[in-house]
Design brief:
There is one protein chain. It is built from 10 helices and no strands. It is mainly alpha-helical. The chain is globular. Keywords: Membrane, Transmembrane, Transmembrane helix.
Length: about 170
């Protein structure tokens, strides 16, 4: 992930402000808030400025995923070109859904909040949508998870990694 963050940071910051680059990185699946905070640290953006940018950037796609992803996937599965990819994405997301199925709100909160590979708001929203978890409940759990992940990634990006990089 660090290589991707460095690549996006370097290339986006050539065309837009460092803050804009961090915002966009925070919206990208896989990178999300974690990548945004790492990028902010690399681009020497203060944590006070970076945290809200990353949180908002990561939140922007979530309502669209929760509301529309099942319909989009259903439509895309009708095409031969995307059927395999969509099935693979659904299977991969559902393969990580055990704790969300079992604990619903708390499971989703922890899934989004503990920054491990393959977890985060995008995947959490996808799983919540596919499991048809109540949108209010899933939105609150994802937001809470983002705040938890923000705190953890702040320590990693500006503490541990920040001290090594700077």
């Amino acid at each position: 992930m660090e290589v991707l963050v460095q690549w996006f940071s370097h290339h986006l910051a050539q065309f837009i402000s460092p803050e804009g680059a961090v915002f966009i990185i925070s919206m990208i699946p896989i990178l999300e808030l974690r990548g945004g905070l790492l990028a902010a640290s690399l681009l020497k953006i203060s944590a006070a400025k970076a945290l809200p940018i990353c949180i908002v950037g990561n939140i922007v796609p979530i309502p669209f995923i929760l509301l529309f992803i099942r319909q989009i996937f259903k439509w895309m599965k009708k095409t031969k070109t995307f059927r395999g990819l969509i099935t693979k994405l659904e299977n991969r997301a559902m393969g990580k859904s055990d704790q969300i199925k079992r604990y619903e709100f708390l499971g989703l909160l922890l899934f989004v909040g503990i920054p491990l590979p393959g977890t985060g708001a995008w995947t959490g929203a996808l799983i919540a949508s596919l499991l048809e978890v109540d949108i209010k409940k899933s939105s609150i759990a994802i937001l809470g998870g983002l705040f938890m992940a923000s705190a953890i990634m702040y320590i990693v990006s500006y503490g541990i990694v920040g001290n090594v990089v700077h």
